[in-house]
C-alpha cells in the first residue's frame, strides 16, 4: 500500500524578489564605490544619513552595470540630492 500523497502536478516557479535582493558584484565592478561608502560609514559611526552621496553613487554604479534594476533615483530616496543638482546646474551661466 502506497502512502505517498500527490497534491497535484503544479510546479513551483521561483521568481526573484521585487526589491531588496540583487546579484552580487562577483567581478568587483562597483568595488570602488562600495569602498567609498563603507569608509564613509566607518568614519561617521555608521550614520548612513551622512553618506547619502556615496550611497547614491554606489547604487548608480550598480544600475549602470546591470547589477540591479534601473530605478529613478528619486524613487530610491534621493529626490533632495537630485533637486540640489538641478538647482546648481540652473545657477551656472
Describe the structure.
The chain has helices spanning 31-43, 52-64, 74-91. It is mostly helical. The protein has a domain at 27-70. The mean pLDDT is 81. This is Cytochrome c oxidase assembly protein COX19. InterPro entries: CHCH, COX19, Cys_alpha_HP_mot_SF.
Main beta-sheet annotation:
none
- The beta-strand count equals 0
| Whole-angstrom Rg | 21 Å
Q: What is the helix/strand order?
A: HHH
Number of helices: 3
Please tell me the overall pLDDT.
81
Strand content: under 5%
| Alpha carbon gap, first and last residue | 86 Å
Amount of helix: 40-55%
Structural class by SSE content: mainly alpha
Which residues sit in consecutive blocks of at least 5 with pLDDT less than 50? none
Shape: extended
Organism: Hemibagrus wyckioides
GO cellular component, one term: mitochondrial intermembrane space
Pfam family, one: CHCH
Keywords: Cytoplasm, Disulfide bond
Topology diagram in text:
Blueprint: H1 31-43, H2 52-64, H3 74-91
Helix pairs in contact: 1-2
Identify the notable features of this structure and list them briefly.
mainly alpha; COX19; 93 residues; extended
In short:
The chain is mostly helical. The chain is 47% helix and 0% strand.
Amino acid at each position: 500500500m502506497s502512502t505517498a500523497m500527490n497534491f497535484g502536478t503544479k510546479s513551483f516557479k521561483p521568481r526573484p524578489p521585487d526589491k531588496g535582493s540583487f546579484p552580487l558584484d562577483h567581478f568587483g565592478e562597483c568595488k570602488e564605490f562600495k569602498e567609498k561608502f563603507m569608509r564613509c560609514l566607518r568614519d561617521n559611526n555608521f550614520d548612513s544619513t551622512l553618506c547619502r552621496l556615496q550611497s547614491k553613487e554606489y547604487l548608480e554604479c550598480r544600475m549602470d552595470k546591470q547589477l540591479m534594476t534601473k530605478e529613478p533615483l528619486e524613487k530610491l530616496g534621493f529626490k533632495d540630492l537630485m533637486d540640489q543638482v538641478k538647482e546648481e546646474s540652473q545657477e551656472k551661466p
